[in-house]
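for the writeup, i need someone to sanity check this before i put it in the appendix. the sequnce is what the collaborator sent (i think, or maybe the updated version? ugh). structure was predicted straight from it, no edits. if anything looks off just tell me and ill rerun, i have time this weekend
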Amino acid sequence: MSTDTTGTDTTDMDTTRTDASGTDTGTGKGAGRGSRFVPLLAVGAFALGLDAYVMAGLLPDVASGLRVSEASAGQMVTVFTLCYALAAPVFATALAGRPAKVVLACALAVFSVGNALSALAPSLPVLLVARALAGIGAGLYSPTAAATAAGLAGEERRGRSLALVMGGMSIGTVVGVPLGVMLAEHMGWRGTLWLITALGLLALAGIALLPTTTAGPPPALRDRVRILADGRVAGIAVVSLLGGIASLGLYTYLAPFLKDAAGSGDTVGPMWAWGAGGVAGSLLIGRIVDRTRRPFAVVTGVLTLLAVAHLALPSAAGTSWVLFVPLVVWGAAGWALQVPQQHQLIAAQPQQAPVAVALNSSAVYLGSAIGSALGGTVIAAGTAPAALPYCTAGLALLGLLLHLTAVRRATRRGTADRAADGPDER
């Protein structure tokens, strides 16, 4: 067994193994051939990325159409995000041992029904229930798709496969959100939701093409409790939480920041720059992780870039072309963070990866919700929006500090424990 500097097992094993969904993936080389099915999972991730971010752009139209205030209509974003975060650990645990195809199909079915009901909603209460359903489906699909992609691809292509799924989500945000807003100008906000519904059903049809899976035995309750007490898993999840607060929280207030720091009401260009960085980061990070085989070191670099980009935003805001540089770096770092994080979680708990990855997914979306709430509170307290990136940079640096201390210690302790237990297991 060989390990990198973080203690992560990097041995390329050719023995039969079971993926995170309980799927028999065969040998290392055979599992790699399953990577051709990963794009099918990316289609669903694209729909999720579009649904998660487009509603903020549709907020004025929804408020006008349902004759409610924008503040009231904004609760649909909160409901979706919270249900996304809460659904991941709950349902990933409840459905443990089910075939991956069944779990993914159920997730996309709930997601599609939720969006269809959203498009038909005659009132705000109905819309909120519908957004909750869509969030539950999204929260179940995302970590399951990531774990399944990792199992289908095998060890050597795991990073690229995780990156492809994350890339589908980032492309849904970068390409889908502007298109969704443009579509709403011609067909109304309900038309955009019907588009998302159609994408969800298309992804559902693609799930039928995945190879047949065999369900593994569901983990015992004590194993589920133990994973929550795993210091390495907990530390990684908190780092993801802080990354979500910093990156996605600031994104919510990008428009007020630009108006205050640059005196500009144009958010289209900056959002495209942030999104383009996100696509590049989420697609390239997998190759970096696969090539270096050191996800811990990669996370260190990504968090550093995220903090530096946020610190540079206020001073760069005065010149549009200079501003695009930290925006691209911010987008790339924010989207890239989760691939090495998921990689570390799967290495830490390979037998319960769906639960671990689901917790990480929840951490990211809870971070988004907390970041939005904290950002609004800080601005309401009198802090200028132009200074908000300094606050989020501090959170990114706090995540980096936790990563370099608590996560490193837990990783080394876990490596020592495995080395001590190794002779007995043999």
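The longest helix spans residues 158-207. DSSP finds 16 helices and two strands in the chain.
thx in advance!!
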